[in-house]
Design goal:
The chain has about 190 residues and is mostly helical. It is about 65% helix and about 0% strand. It folds into 2 domains: about 5-30 and about 105-185, no CATH class; about 30-90, no CATH class. The radius of gyration is 21 Å and the shape is elongated.
Length: about 190
């Protein structure tokens, strides 16, 4: 089984690598990935997406990205796509404001779930024991990404995850796999 100090070293390296790949705010990176994914999906049927979509900030970004992708690939735009783009360029359609409320934390949460699974695969228990003794994957994550989130919140993220969770749109498994292999050799 991996020791607590080894786990902290490994997760610190993975967390730093994730931030190097995606920037300091993993939630924003996750959201960018999600918009890119849906932009790619909807570029094939852009007209119906424009017609049926409520224009909010996310849909605006998806439509804009889908049109840009079509133009980059030198694909024709339909009349409704051209009309939408012209209205945006003329200022007749503006990007709606972000909706108020709690921000999405899927980027951060997906990394936490990935890292806990990484440590669990090396034999480390997931949840803290009583009394807390620096022996669990949740405690490791709390120490590495503190003060952003508490060990209790990390435990809740793990316990509340979808059991068929596949690490979201940022494919941590693929992105950090080369580093993971080196860490397992080193520690």
């Amino acid at each position: 089984m991996i020791t607590f100090d080894q786990a902290i070293a490994q997760i610190t390296i993975l967390y730093d690598e994730a931030k190097t790949l995606y920037g300091e705010n993993l939630n924003e990176a996750f959201e960018r990935n999600r918009i890119e994914f849906w932009g790619d999906v909807h570029k094939r049927d852009l007209d119906s997406f424009i017609k049926r979509s409520e224009l909010n900030s996310k849909n605006f970004d998806i439509i804009k990205l889908a049109i840009a992708s079509r133009l980059e690939q030198e694909q024709m735009l339909s009349r409704s796509s051209k009309d939408w783009l012209i209205k945006v360029l003329r200022g007749e359609i503006e990007r709606p404001s972000e909706s108020a409320g709690r921000k999405d934390t899927l980027g951060r949460d997906s990394f936490i779930i990935y890292a806990i699974q990484f440590l669990k695969d090396q034999g480390m228990p997931v949840n803290p024991r009583t009394p807390v003794a620096g022996t669990s994957a949740c405690e490791v994550l709390a120490k590495v990404i503190k003060p952003l989130i508490s060990a209790r919140s990390i435990t809740n993220i793990w316990n509340d995850r979808n059991k068929s969770y596949i690490f979201g749109k940022i494919h941590w498994e693929a992105e950090l796999n080369h580093l993971r292999a080196r860490l397992l050799e080193k520690y």
